Amino acid sequence: MRKINYTPAKSMLVGELPRGCRLCITGEKLVLFVSGLCPRDCFYCTLSEKRKNTDKSWANEQLIESDNDLLKEARLCQSRGAGITGGEPLLPANIGKTLHYIELLKKTFGKEFHIHLYTSGIGMNESVLQQLQTAGLDEIRFHLDIDNEKNWNIMPYGKLSQTSWEILLPALKHKFDVGVEIPCIPGTLKKLERLAQFLDSQNVKFLNLNELELSEIQYDEMQKRGFELAEGGTRQVKGSRELAQKILLFSSKNCKNLSVHFCPSMLKDVYQYTNRIKRRAESIKKPFEKVTKEGLLQKGAIFAKIKELDFLPKNELFFRHELDRVETSVKNAELAAKHGFSAAKILELPTADGFDIELEPIESRSRKQPKSR
To answer: Is 17's pLDDT higher than 90?
Structure first.
């Protein structure tokens, strides 16, 4: 029996954590959204209406309109790798962009820049696999439709239909690592047990089980299927974590080499996302801004023109035209308030589409207060 361990991010693991996951936890993975085009309609899909079925690409929160947009975001986040997702990156309509981005990132940042890709297998063939290998892909993660017997027909004793074999096995002939990443859907215990044994028998490197979440977009559909919010949870589905624990225990006893990792939803918020925005905040912060432990930019704001603030150091003032305010240190904002100017303490999200998370007015002598924006 193999040991079940906890990772530094409080996820659970049997075996070895995939390199893509290690970089993800530390915030060093750029999320490269190639396209929202996808023929599948998974009931648990968390894709926003903004991105679903659109042929646009994003690097984290940055819309990609040129290669420079992608490279700039990677540099700002001090990324050491990228995870390519969608939509379906291997669709004929998307494969050109997918290959171009892999080649661009490898050429710019070097072979050690780790790139993994998520796919359902739709659009994949031997030619596509060879092109991915040539471009420099390091890891491929199959999103198998475990909930749909028509697409993933797991038979007793680990035998699979020919269609299912064709989804996964050809990738094993190539140099990149091969794994499976799927949501942990309550009610699929026996399927997941047989899946784990099959993957282990074929020398697939890992199985990632993501905690199932109640998607706002698909909330009604998930309710119809009987899914409920876990006690004390914000979006976690009841029973998903418990099922993952059973699969980890099963795999520790019955799988010799397959690594199995349970990724709870809190990992994405508390570790992946927070660590990523911290890295970006450190890159873009101005001398008067501070980065909080949550990765937010802390600063002061004065609702005035710079020429009105002659009592403050000019090199500590920055005028934000789109917000019609002067940004500076909290100390300077407090001093301006004492001079009768409307001012506030600001916590700002440091992403490409960043906005004020918190605006706390500073009491001024004139009692003027800024309007929330």
So the answer is: yes
